[in-house]
Write a structure and sequence with these properties.
Elements lengths: L8 H14 L13 E5 L11 H19 L3 E5 L1 E2 L3 H14 L4 H4 L1 H14 L3 H8 L10 E2 L3 H16 L3 E11 L4 E3 L4 E18 L2 E10 L10 E4 L13 E3 L7 E6 L11 E4 L5 H9 L29 H14 L3 E14 L7 E10 L2 H12 L4 E3 L3 H10 L4 E2 L1 E2 L9 E3 L5 E3 L3 H12 L5 E2 L3 E2 L1 H6 L1 H4 L8 H6 L2 E7 L3 H16 L4 E7 L1 E3 L16 H8 L1 H10 L7 E3 L3 H21 L19 H22 L3 H23 L6 H19 L4 H10 L22 H24 L7 E5 L5 H11 L1 E5 L7 H6 L2 E3 L2 H27 L1 H6 L2 H31 L1
Parallel strand pairs: 1-2, 3-4, 9-11, 15-23, 22-23, 24-25, 26-27
Antiparallel strand pairs: 5-6, 5-14, 7-8, 7-13, 9-12, 10-11, 14-16, 17-21, 18-19, 18-20, 26-28
Helix pairs in contact: 1-23, 10-11, 10-16, 11-16, 17-18, 18-19, 19-21, 20-21, 20-22, 20-24, 21-22, 22-23, 24-25, 27-29
């Protein structure tokens, strides 16, 4: 097979991927006769576009799937997309706004139809981008979280949790997005550092004495209207005598609240005394629950002050931040504002709308998490669920130990609607269908008149059952029986508790087994300066641009080479793509050399008898075998960075730079075709999971078995001969060659200039020829060097021919004399010496002294050369 002179990834990659997908190479059927290796792709949002975070998380999944497929396992990578309820609805609402319309103008039914149409037309573009990056997922099995089968599974899980007493409707504190008008999960929050003010406000003991009271520090004065207590730490000596006393609420002064003690208070924050507003702060909510405090709401769902539950005076109806300013002014006017200090802290905002999230008490649906968490904790502590890096297991454990009930209802239209109906008197009916709900209502409540709950489910609810819902649950499908649990989940650290833990909890409850054995946490991606990538900084890198510029293989290599799981930080540099492109070109040129050998390559791929193998042959076969073992071990340990570096070093440094050069020696001509073909074929299979395209294109050009490298066997080290003595001896040759090359570099010889090697007489002729070839040298024989190869090679002398050295020295003398003449004239110019800075003049003097010393050295070397001649 003739290869073009240049490797063109833009021509090769789309052609090969289309061929792979058209022939179903990524598709698998359940096969109980083979060990399963299943990865469930974390479903990207239907609105998403590929970014570097996807690349660092999804590329390792492709590497593992390809690797385990080549091992002969029943390997399948199951893809899909998430309906991304809030994100998709936000996009559609923005599009409608451009037309001057609101979602309410369409009504719920038409809006949902519009969302489906949009998802089918514009959603899922990320799948095409994943194909461009060479991701070999089983696209025939792709799922969408709103598909009917998955939706039915969601309804079944909701109903079963309710009937198991693990799901209930209650009034609890939630994250409220005032702009999007919905609850949001912790995963949908951005914690943004912002400049703020820390106000110190005195809560007086009485109206008549503003100077006597307790000082409280707060960044949210608007919530003071809902204060029900002041809390201090029980062991804080400053406040030991104040616990139990009453103080007045500063903005109003008509309402008194108690001072209480609670362990949750940080004595180091502010004054060590904090206001307690249970309806508007998570920590305050916990304090309020422990002390049975009232929980009045003073900020409504519209983010305005409300007096529906408690008197709020003149602030009723004011927007929350406007009320903040007015309250501060009033507190100051009453002489109760002690200080206002600049303060920088983290504020929770909705990543969808950008609005500041308001903690609010709300009647919502919750999953009772503690009973589900206990088995998930046991699975980790018993070693059934393992984390890489191991330290992330503690993150998982801590979250489950302190778990809170999970708010699963959302006030949006796009998504899985709650399978909940209400009777006219407010009784809740939970059922998988409206027909079932009517039957229950008629049987238990004597009515058929039902109203369906308008809320939808948190997207993470459907994602939590992803590992078994995509396998056909609740039906007992063959896929479910063969492929659950999967072997590994690869994901980002920030969703260990939001997704990973919930998958384990729900998997254990519904499948009675863990959903996966290993959890691999991929590093966070930063720019080369260590900054988080963001549009505002202008440092965002689009992987599709890099794939188009350098090729998908080069981009994959650039990501994998920088991936170190233990550090958990990847500082991405585009220059790694350039290095990878050069690496691919090196592979390409080596392949062209192999294919151009006289006589072609043997068919089928076989090795010559061992007695015919040269030292270089034996060395490269040994290193090939060792590389197979190392690569297998690193991939089994999910060490993608070192696996990539291992195959990179073997291909570039050992195969191309050493063995290919060694095959140009006449002594290697007889065996080189077979060995080159054998090792290069196997090396491409080792490279394939990492760089699938160039490895396939090269492999197809070599003697091979099978139609595609995708389904070829992973090399078996036991089938490759190894020669420990040859590996040791060739390493001695390498050191000798490097010593000679260093000599050539030190005296500045041109690559074509030959040196002379003084070889001991006992250096074997093949080794002597190899040394001469790889150092551009001739050699002369002398006395034996010591009887063993190491001593003989250590005794090698190297020299350059007299005429070559003399010519070089003469050129150097000419250059030095020119520099000395220039320096003397410059320092002899009185105007320069008088006007130039002393440091500049001194620098010129030092340079001149250096040139004179170098001139003396070269003149002495030239005299010595003439005398020796």
């Amino acid at each position: 097979m003739d290869l073009p002179k240049q490797y063109d990834p833009q021509a090769v990659e789309p052609r090969l991927y289309s061929h792979w997908e058209a022939n179903g190479y990524f598709h698998e059927e359940p096969d109980p006769a083979r060990p399963p290796f299943i990865i469930c792709m974390p479903p990207p949002n239907v609105t998403a576009r590929a970014h570097l975070g996807h690349a660092s998380t999804f590329t390792p999944m492709d590497v593992l799937t390809r690797y385990h497929r080549m091992l002969g396992e029943n390997a399948d990578w199951l893809p899909g997309t998430d309906h991304a309820a809030i994100a998709t609805e936000a996009v559609l609402v923005r599009e409608l706004a451009k037309e001057g319309r609101r979602r309410e103008d369409l009504g719920r039914e038409r809006f949902v139809e519009h969302a489906w149409e949009w998802s089918r037309t514009y959603g899922g573009a990320i799948d095409a981008q994943f194909r461009r990056l060479g991701f070999g997922a089983d696209w025939q099995r792709s799922h969408f979280t709103m598909d009917e089968g998955l939706s039915a599974a969601v309804r079944r899980v909701f109903v079963q949790l309710y009937r198991d007493g693990l799901l209930y409707r209650g009034k609890r504190l939630i994250n409220w997005d005032p702009k999007a008008q919905t609850t949001v999960s912790d995963a949908e929050l951005d914690h943004v550092e912002r400049d703020a003010t820390l106000w110190r406000i005195r809560y007086p003991f009485s109206k008549d004495d503003a100077a006597a009271g307790i000082e409280v520090a707060t960044t949210r004065p608007e919530t003071m209207l809902g204060d029900v207590a002041i809390a201090v730490h029980p062991r804080d000596p400053r406040y030991a005598g104040l616990v139990g006393r009453q103080v007045l609420l500063p903005p109003l002064l008509e309402r008194s609240i108690p001072i209480i003690a609670d362990e949750a208070v940080d004595p180091e924050f502010g004054t060590g005394a904090v206001k307690v507003t249970p309806a508007h702060d998570p920590t305050d909510y916990e304090i309020g629950t422990r002390h049975a405090l009232p929980m009045p709401t003073v900020i409504g769902f519209d983010a305005c002050i409300t007096g529906a539950e408690v008197a709020v005076g003149p602030y009723a109806g004011m927007e929350r931040f406007a009320a903040r300013e007015r309250i501060v002014e009033d507190v100051k006017a009453r002489g109760l504002l002690v200080a206002a200090d600049a303060y920088r802290h983290s504020i929770a905002t909705s990543e969808r709308s950008g609005d500041v999230v308001e903690p609010l008490l709300s009647l919502q649906w919750f999953v009772r998490a503690a009973p589900l968490a206990a088995p998930a904790l046991e699975a980790y502590r018993s070693g059934r669920v393992r984390f890489t890096p191991e330290r992330y297991g503690r993150t998982y454990e801590q979250w489950l130990e302190n778990i809170r009930d999970w708010n699963v209802s959302r006030q949006i239209w796009w998504g899985h609607r709650l399978p909940v109906w209400y009777t006219p008197d407010g009784k809740e009916i939970v059922a998988e269908s409206e027909t079932e709900a009517v039957e229950i209502a008629e049987r238990e409540h004597g009515t058929r008149d039902l109203t369906r709950d308008p809320d939808t489910l948190d997207t993470w609810f459907s994602s939590g059952i992803w590992p078994f819902s995509i396998l056909g649950w609740p039906e007992r499908t063959e896929e479910l029986q063969c492929w659950y649990p999967s072997q590994v989940m690869i994901t980002a650290g920030e969703i260990i508790f939001l997704w990973v833990a919930r998958m384990v909890m729900l998997g254990l409850h519904f499948m009675r087994d863990i959903p996966f054995r290993d959890v691999v946490i991929t590093p966070l991606v930063f720019d080369s300066a260590g900054r988080k990538m963001s549009k505002s900084l202008g440092n965002v890198i689009d992987p599709m641009v890099l794939a188009d510029k350098y090729g998908a293989d080069a981009f994959r290599l650039s990501v994998l080479r920088q991936m170190r799981l233990e550090s958990q930080e990847m500082r991405y540099q585009e220059s790694r793509c350039e290095e990878a492109r050069n690496f691919n070109n090196k592979i390409w040129n080596a392949t062209r050399y192999i294919l151009a050998l006289p006589g072609g390559l043997p068919q089928p791929m076989t090795l010559p008898p061992e007695r015919e193998l040269t030292l270089a042959d034996r060395w490269i076969l040994t290193r090939y075998r060792e590389t197979i073992v190392t690569m297998s071990g690193l991939l089994d340990a999910y060490d993608f960075g070192n696996a990539t570096e291992t195959i990179w070093r073997f291909l570039w440094y050992e195969f191309c730079d050493w063995y290919v050069e060694a095959t140009k020696a006449p002594e290697n001509h007889a065996t080189r075709g077979a060995v080159l073909s054998y090792v290069w074929n196997g090396a491409m299979r080792l490279l394939h999971p990492i760089a699938p395209f160039i490895s396939e294109e090269v492999w197809l050009a070599l003697p091979h078995d099978g139609a595609t490298i995708v389904t070829a066997n992973w090399p078996d080290p036991l089938e490759v001969p190894a020669f420990a003595d040859a590996a040791r001896d060739f390493a001695l040759v390498q050191r000798a060659v490097e010593r000679v090359r260093n000599f050539r570099a030190e005296i500045g010889l041109h690559p074509r200039d030959r040196v002379v090697l003084d070889l001991p007489g006992d250096v074997p002729e093949p080794v002597a020829a190899l040394l001469a070839l790889m150092t551009t040298a001739t050699f002369e024989r002398g006395a034996p060097g010591g009887g063993i190869l190491e001593e003989s090679l250590a005794a090698i002398g190297v020299r350059a021919p007299h005429d070559l050295l003399a010519s070089r020295y003469r050129k150097e003398l000419e250059h030095l004399r020119s520099e000395i003449d220039r320096g003397e004239k410059k320092l002899g110019n009185q105007a320069f010496v008088a006007k130039a800075a002393p440091s500049v003049v001194e620098k010129e003097r030092l340079k001149l002294e250096g040139y004179r010393a170098e001139l003396a050295r070269v003149e002495a070397a030239l005299r010595e050369l003439k005398e020796s001649a």
